[in-house]
Design a protein that fits this description.
Elements: E1 10-14, H1 18-36, H2 41-61, E2 64-69, E3 72-75, E4 78-81, E5 85-91, H3 93-100, E6 109-111, E7 119-124, E8 133-137, H4 141-148
Parallel strand pairs: 6-8
Antiparallel strand pairs: 1-2, 2-3, 3-4, 5-7, 7-8
Length: 149
């Protein structure tokens, strides 16, 4: 994964949104009360600390970094040279849901996050790669497509 820097043509990091962290906090509080009532505060605290650690680890593992630098597109751990990109298409919410769902190609590369409602479909022209396109979640879909086109 390339780190974004001052030479990056495009850089975006997609983390968990505030409302998802709030849902996690409510869930942990609920589990605390569920365990505290029949047992004790120590047992509830230990379980909730373990749960919090799992959620924090999950948030780091599900973070999505998108970087375009030196004519390479990096999305998470995947990368492709920009010369193999035929075109990048900005997808609004309706088109994005359609391409992510019923119109999805199983051979495509998908770097999507359920809390992002827009994205970019990057069509490829590499004859040696069976992947027809990359579907990428992005809050800055227009800027990403502009850099790739």
């Amino acid at each position: 994964m390339a780190k974004s820097n001052s030479n990056s043509e495009f850089a975006e990091r997609i983390n968990w949104p505030f409302w998802l962290w709030l849902l996690v906090a409510i869930m942990i509080a609920s589990v605390y009360l569920t365990i505290w009532a029949p047992f004790n505060a120590l047992a509830a605290t230990v379980v909730c600390i373990l749960m919090a650690a799992v959620f924090i680890y999950s948030s780091f593992k599900s973070r999505l970094d998108i970087v375009v630098i030196n004519n390479w597109l990096y999305v998470g751990n995947a990368k492709i040279e920009c010369k193999f990109i035929k075109k990048a298409i900005v997808l609004n919410k309706t088109d994005y849901l359609r391409v992510r769902g019923p119109k999805a190609d199983p051979a495509s590369f998908s770097a999507t996050r359920f809390w992002i409602s827009t994205g970019v479909k990057v069509e490829l022209s590499d004859k040696s790669d069976p992947t027809p396109y990359w579907l990428i979640s992005s809050k800055k879909a227009k800027a990403l497509a502009a850099v790739l086109n």
